[in-house]
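User: My collaborator sent over this chain with a note saying "see what the structure looks like." That's all I know about it. Can you take a look?
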Amino acid sequence: MERLEDKIKTFGKYGDTGKGGITRLCFTEPNLQARAEFCRRCEALGLSVKTDDMGNIYATKPGKEDLPAIAVGSHLDSVVRGGNFDGVLGVLTGLEALETMIVEGIETRHPMTVLVWTNEEGSRFRPAMMSSGVIAGKFDQATMLAVKDEEGIAFKDALEASGFKGDATNRFSTKGYSAFLELHIEQGPVLEAEGKDIGVVEGVLGMVNYEIKTRGQANHAGTTPMPLRKDALYAMVAVIQYLHDELDKLDPSLVYTTGEFSGGPNVHTVIPDNVRITIDARHRDPEVIRQVVKVIESLPAEIRGCPVTYREQWARNTIDFKPDMVGIVEESTKTLGYPYKRMYSGAGHDAQYIADLVPATMIFVPSDTGFSHCEEEHTSLEQCWKGANVILHSLLALDQK
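Assistant: Without extra context I'll predict from the sequence alone. Here is the result:
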């Protein structure tokens, strides 16, 4: 447990906000420092370290037989003012599992690889899960390389300047790998509320994300009579209320969020003439998602004198991890005697893309108070250690299988 604590504390220094969290955006200096620290630790253990053409890092312990590797890992980048556990814990528990094998002299038939995915959060370069998406054929590589951050820096240029650009032949593939495990904090309150140590993840919820706009008429705030106004913000208030009223009639396990909002001209003496929001909805059942879309499509074409438009930005189907992979994690958890819950992830993760290439699954550990993507994010050392134990036992079980 002391080794894992040292790893968590050390990596928490890279991008430390001074308030308990980190800001470690892709290929910024703190991210590069964390990547370098990971490589140093892997090389000190005798692992071979290589990178691919998207900057993903692969640290491998050889196996006794000529077999595809079993991979475990997550990401080292963060959101702005994020926490010390999101993503990085999956890397560190994977590294801890391999270090345990080395220290204890545990040999495996398969090579074992700890993997760091590049730009999972998408906080600097959109979209999220960019590199695993390219590897899995979800995104066009040339398009992703051309993506620019808010300062106009292209991902391609940041990748080349990072020193972590490798060769495409090093990519994760169905030929080189046979399975993938990803440990992650739950990022929600369920495990803590139910007194469970481990979430055995069966899959990732399907989702849909729409952009909705209202268009009004800018005019003077002091001279335009109320009945003659076309206030885009006032219209959007009605849109949001309509969505909440109608979506609340659907399945109670549906979750939805108005996450982005903007408007203009954003001047205190001018009536707003344009407002934009996004609506993000997630559920396991595709029929419920279809019902969400019907609600959005039923929005009036005009509200309070303002035209209303919408468009789908992206969507994903529910991902079901292979039952035998989920079963291996469940049996490992049972063997260790940890209370657990089978569950679906509401958040997206690299494992959902990699599941199209090889059998994959995930392991959740509790998030205190359900906090994540914030500086208050925390998981106790004991719970992190239990997660690492499940990783170790699951890797060894996969190796025998």
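A starting point for your reply to your collaborator: The CA atoms of residues 76 and 307 lie 43 Å apart.
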